[in-house]
């Protein structure tokens, strides 16, 4: 039986471990022993307690496995992916680190490694969808609106996170890049806010975020944008915190001690952003692809509205992110995709059989993308 090592046992990492345990030997690795205990006792998953900020610990944990899933926080992601590649292991990565993954492309090819990066919902499934349509038509415009939110709105942020607080804050401070008339446009995050109506959800607020990532390099499409969705009004609180310096990485002195404001902010916000036990969430994503197919103007819409799964108490953001990654892990294990190097998800979508494989895999887990020609 194939062996998979999952680095990180957070809300998403745990869901992936449970999913893959149905078919494979799974080992979950994390510094948090409490998170590992539940996987071990409830699901009979092998666990390793280790500090994954140290590359030697990663290399030791993965030395006997067939494939790795990298689900560590973003600030650790690049170095952990490098350690995995140096170990010669194929990997599916959902760390969403800020560094350019293509810096590791030559290293991956040298070690004969397939490293699929940014393999979540967005980036991830959005890229896969665009990759398929870019292969079969001339795409002129791509728009992706996406967000994961709690069902119950709690003041002041009306938001809950399943990822590292610092990773979430990065969305609010990293300049947003999008493509307009074949030119890269850079604006500050949280800019160009607009209200958007969604069936079954209501009104949400969208704003510029740096979600296109690899698509800027790999897709020759004249107009591309991704925007993040939150409840209306949330953006004002975030702007106040950002503009007052609470998200800054630059140290300030307080009573003779030097601290980074972002570390303090993360510490304070995490309890407010953490999903409580049994707290329900939902994920919404709308993708619109416009262009020409067989010399005719076409416009496709993919719509995802996914909700907390009550029967298994599985949060939606973990389902939509994690099952995309486990679908791709299955693709690699079954040798349906074996190109070496750094592989952004849009490359996977180019092959129709792999595209359908991933959609079917998600559908089996009740993650359904509705497509229509509009």
Describe it for me?
This protein has a 7-stranded parallel sheet with strand order 3-2-1-4-5-6-17, with helices on both faces. With 374 residues, the chain is of the alpha/beta class. The chain contains 13 helices and 18 strands. The protein is 35% helix and 29% strand. Helix 11 crosses helix 13. Helix 5 links the parallel strand 5 and strand 6. The chain has 2 domains: 168 residues, Rossmann fold (3-Layer(aba) Sandwich); 183 residues, 2-Layer Sandwich (Dihydrodipicolinate Reductase, domain 2).
Query: How many H/I helices?
Result: 13
Principal-axes shape call = globular
Taking all Cα atoms into account, the compactness measure Rg is: 20 Å
Helix content: 25-40%
Notable characteristics:
374 residues; alpha/beta; Rossmann fold; Dihydrodipicolinate Reductase, domain 2; seven-stranded parallel β-sheet; seven-stranded mixed β-sheet; 13 helices; 35% helix; globular
Describe the SSE topology.
Layout: E1 3-7, H1 11-20, E2 25-30, H2 33-43, E3 46-49, H3 55-62, E4 67-70, H4 74-86, E5 90-93, H5 105-110, E6 114-116, H6 125-136, E7 138-150, H7 165-173, E8 176-180, E9 183-187, E10 194-198, E11 202-208, H8 215-218, E12 223-230, H9 234-243, E13 252-254, E14 257-259, H10 261-273, E15 281-293, E16 296-307, H11 316-333, E17 341-343, H12 345-349, H13 352-364, E18 369-373
Helix pairs in contact: 1-11, 3-4, 11-13
Give a quick precis of the structure.
The protein is α/β, with parallel strands linked by helices and 374 residues long. It has 13 helices and 18 strands.
């Amino acid at each position: 039986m194939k062996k998979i090592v999952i680095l990180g046992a957070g809300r998403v990492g745990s869901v992936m471990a449970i999913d893959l345990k149905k078919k494979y030997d799974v080992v979950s690795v994390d510094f948090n022993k409490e998170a590992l205990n539940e996987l071990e006792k409830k699901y009979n998953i092998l666990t390793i307690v280790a500090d994954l900020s140290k590359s030697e610990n990663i290399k030791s944990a993965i030395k006997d496995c067939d494939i790795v899933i990298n689900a560590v926080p973003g600030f650790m992601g690049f170095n952990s992916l490098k350690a995995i590649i140096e170990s010669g292991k194929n990997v599916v990565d959902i760390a969403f680190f800020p560094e350019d993954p293509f810096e590791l492309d030559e290293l991956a090819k040298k070690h004969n490694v397939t490293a699929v990066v940014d393999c979540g919902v967005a980036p991830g499934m959005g890229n896969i969808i665009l990759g398929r349509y870019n292969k079969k038509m001339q795409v002129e415009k791509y728009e992706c609106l996406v967000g994961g939110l709690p069902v119950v709105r709690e003041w002041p942020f009306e938001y809950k996170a399943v990822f590292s607080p610092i990773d979430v804050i990065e969305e609010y401070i990293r300049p947003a890049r999008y493509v307009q008339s074949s030119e890269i446009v850079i604006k500050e995050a949280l800019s160009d806010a607009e209200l958007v109506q969604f069936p079954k959800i209501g009104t949400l607020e969208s704003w510029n975020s740096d979600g296109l990532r690899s698509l800027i390099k790999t897709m020759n499409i004249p107009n591309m944008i991704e925007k993040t969705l939150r409840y209306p009004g949330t953006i004002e609180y975030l702007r106040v915190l950002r503009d007052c310096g609470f998200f800054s990485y630059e140290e300030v002195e307080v009573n003779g001690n030097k601290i980074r404001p972002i570390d303090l902010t993360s510490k304070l916000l995490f309890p407010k952003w953490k999903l409580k036990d049994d707290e329900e969430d939902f994920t919404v994503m709308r993708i619109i692809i416009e262009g020409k197919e067989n010399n005719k103007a076409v416009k496709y819409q993919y719509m995802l509205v996914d909700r907390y799964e009550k029967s298994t108490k599985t949060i939606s953001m973990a389902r939509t992110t994690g099952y995309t990654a486990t679908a791709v892990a299955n693709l690699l294990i079954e040798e349906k995709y074996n190109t070496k190097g750094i592989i952004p998800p849009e490359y996977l979508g180019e092959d129709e059989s792999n595209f359908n494989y991933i959609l079917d895999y998600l559908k089996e887990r009740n993650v359904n993308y509705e497509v229509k020609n509009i």
